[in-house]
Amino acid sequence: MKYKDYYGILGVKREASAEDIKTAYRKLARKYHPDVSKEKDAEEKFKEVSEAYETLKDAEKRAAYDQLGTHREGQEFRPPPDWGQQFGQGGMGGRHFEDIDLSDLFAGLAGARGRAPGGGARGNRPMAGSDYEAVVRIAFDQAFHGTEVDLELSALEWDPDGGVRRVPHRVRTRIPRGVANGEKLRVPGKGGKGANGGPDGDLYLDIEVADHPLYRVSGNDLYVDLPLAPWEAVLGTSVDLPTPAGTVTLKVPAGTRAGQQLRLSGRGMTRGSAAAGHLYALVRIEVPSVVDDTHKDLYKKLAETSNFDPRAHFVKETSR
User: Fold this and answer.
1) Using an 8 Å Cβ cutoff, are 220 and 271 in contact?
2) Mean of per-residue pLDDT scores for the chain
3) Fold identical between 6-113 and 215-313?
4) 192-202 mean pLDDT
5) What is the DSSP secondary structure assignment for residue 199, as one 8-state letter?
6) Lowest-confidence pick of 32-41, 53-62, 89-98, 275-284
7) Of 207, 227, 204, which is closest to residue 217 (Cα–Cα)?
8) Which CATH number fits domain 132-209: 3.20.20.70, 2.60.40.180, 3.40.50.300, 2.60.260.20?
9) Burial (Cβ within 10 Å: 0-12, 13-18, ≥19) of residue 108
10) Which of 80, 134, 239, 312 has the highest CB neighbour number within 10 Å of its CB?
11) 222: CB partners within 8 A, 6+ apart
């Protein structure tokens, strides 16, 4: 029988805690899951990681594994002479240790422990289902209002014989309003099915929110550019401003400057019961690219009569 270094596969020390082992498994399972991984040989590595975790997450199996000693990865070895009697393997049903794989050995261990002293079967121990991970791409409006998505996954699950099989996995789940680009959502119980009464695994969603042509997101706040004509900024005006929740009338005070931010309270993103963010209209002064003679004369008259100097501070700053 060839030795497999389950601790090495998970990248943890032999004295690692159960929580450390679980954390390492989840990290590697997400890295190598064939549905999302671009790693070479991802499916094979996913199987190795899952096999190692199935043994080390169980206290009794882990104790039995530790009793096998430490060997080189892939080295041929035999368990200690009394190992089979100590951990319930007995005579291995007439099979020799050389004839089986290490994973089969521990699958047999689970079956042996599942028998009552009189020989009656108590059934296999409960096993938690696998966690799944999927990338979900949604539009900005879906992120703002919340939405429901239907996912069709091709997932890997343990079969009754201890192997791994690919099965279709369809999930309908709710994406809450206010979700952010790059956020990871956990959906409890929407992962792989548990075995023998064990709990179902969880589904992890990696959220990608498409850019919007108008709005930019910063936390729960939104920003939108507000173009104004020069006379609108000087005299003040009211404009119809689009927001994700509908158009509102925004009053622009006289003397508004380029770069000024006009705030609309509570018009930003909302998440759960938390207070909504704000929508900021960032003022830009736009000048006409085409001017007829009549308007050109008006601009000339304004230039001749106005004493406004936008560069007056140049003299002050350079005279210090």
Assistant:
1) yes
2) 83
3) no
4) 76
5) P
6) 89-98
7) 207
8) 2.60.260.20
9) buried
10) 134
11) 215, 216, 243, 244, 267, 268, 269, 277, 278, 279, 280
Bridge partner list, 240:
249
Does position 52 have pLDDT exceeding 70, yes or no? yes
Q: Domain 215-313 falls in which CATH fold?
A: HSP40/DNAj peptide-binding domain (2.60.260)
**CATH no. for 6-113:** 1.10.287.110
For residue 263, what pLDDT is reported? 97
DSSP string, 3-72: ---HHHHHT--TT--HHHHHHHHHHHHHHH-TTT--STTHHHHHHHHHHHHHHHTSHHHHHHHHTT----
Q: Are 126 and 196 in contact (CB under 8 A)?
A: yes
pLDDT band of residue 301 (cuts 50, 70, 90) is very high
C-beta separation of 6 from 65 below 8 A: yes
Alpha-carbon 3 to chain mean position: 35
202's tokens? 């969880």
Domain layout of the chain by residue ranges: 6-113, 132-209, 215-313
